[in-house]
Amino acid sequence: AALPVFLLAQLPKSNIYVFDLTYEGDSIVLTKPKFLTYFNENSYNNHPYFVNNEELFISAKLSYDAQPDVYQLNLTTNERLRVTATSEGEYSPRKMPDYYNFSAVRMEFHEQDTFLRLWQFPIDRSNNGQPVFRDIANIGYYEWLTSRDLLLFQVGTPNQLVKADVYSQNMEIIATNPGRCFRNLGNGRVLFVQKSPQGNTIMQYNTRSYGSSSNVQEVAPTLTNSEDFAVLYNGTLLMARGSEIFSFRPGTDESWQPFVDLRAYNITNISRIELSP
């Protein structure tokens, strides 16, 4: 029997669903749908991230909260744990490579100014956390590469994708006008979306190639009018549009192929897609 893998779709109404994803020969099947955010239906539920195959972090704003907090959902026991409870907003929670901490983008309010900074917090919640970077702000999204290096989506005019060193606080610009979604494939390889007026492209960045123009290469055009993507273990890309999820196998497919339609579940406008380990 194929081991289940979980797949998430986040909707503009901010409802989050989870499915088991299994392999039957060359086909992929979604089964066992579950509505995860029934406790906060049609409110803000966003940025799903799998801590492991049974637990995930989300950023959610309940009706009585001023700003979103991080919640941990257990898919086996259906238990829900509020991880942060602050007057400021926490977004994009991620487990850090050291296994003892998790990180999140915090929207800080200082008088008339608002800052987006990356924070780290102990998983055991033994203290209130601290900023990851002393001087780097305007961080919209991020992805850990190692315990020392990470990619940052810096909000600006234009937006930039940068590689940052936690210890030295040094930054290297990787791309200008990137998409918000990037995926660490391991072995020094990262996929991200490069936006352009001619069309958006999924690119591969080799973090181990220094001083070489070959460290960024084209992988595939994005699905039209879509930005977020996920990557299966065999390198197949998944993107969504409307109620449908499409697949693309680099080096094999010439165009995006219909994968599954979730309209029967009343899921009609899929945005984010997240895969479990």
Structure report:
A hairpin with a 2-residue loop joins strand 2 (16-24) and strand 3 (27-35). The mean pLDDT is 90. The chain is globular, with a radius of gyration of 18 Å. It has strands at 5-10, 16-24, 27-35, 44-50, 55-61, 69-74, 80-82, 89-95, 101-110, 113-122, 130-131, 139-144, 149-154, 160-165, 171-176, 178-186, 189-194, 201-206, 216-221, 229-231, 237-241, 244-248, 257-261, 272-275. The protein has no helices and 24 strands. 0% of the residues lie in helices and 54% in strands. The strands form six sheets. The chain has a four-stranded antiparallel sheet with strand order 3-2-1-24, with no helix packed on it. The two termini are 18 Å apart. It is an all-beta fold.
Q: Mean of the pLDDT scores?
A: 90
Between the first and last Cα atoms, what is the distance in angstroms? 18 Å
Per DSSP E runs of 2 or more residues, the count of β-strands stands at 24
Number of helices: 0
Q: What class, by secondary structure content?
A: mainly beta
Strand arrangement within the widest β-sheet reads 3-2-1-24
Helix amount: under 10%
Main sheet characteristics: 4 strands, antiparallel
Shape: globular
Q: Assess the beta-strand content as a share of residues.
A: over 45%
Topology of helices and strands:
Layout: E1 5-10, E2 16-24, E3 27-35, E4 44-50, E5 55-61, E6 69-74, E7 80-82, E8 89-95, E9 101-110, E10 113-122, E11 130-131, E12 139-144, E13 149-154, E14 160-165, E15 171-176, E16 178-186, E17 189-194, E18 201-206, E19 216-221, E20 229-231, E21 237-241, E22 244-248, E23 257-261, E24 272-275
Antiparallel strand pairs: 1-2, 1-24, 2-3, 4-5, 5-6, 6-7, 8-9, 9-10, 10-11, 12-13, 13-14, 14-15, 16-17, 17-18, 18-19, 20-21, 21-22, 22-23
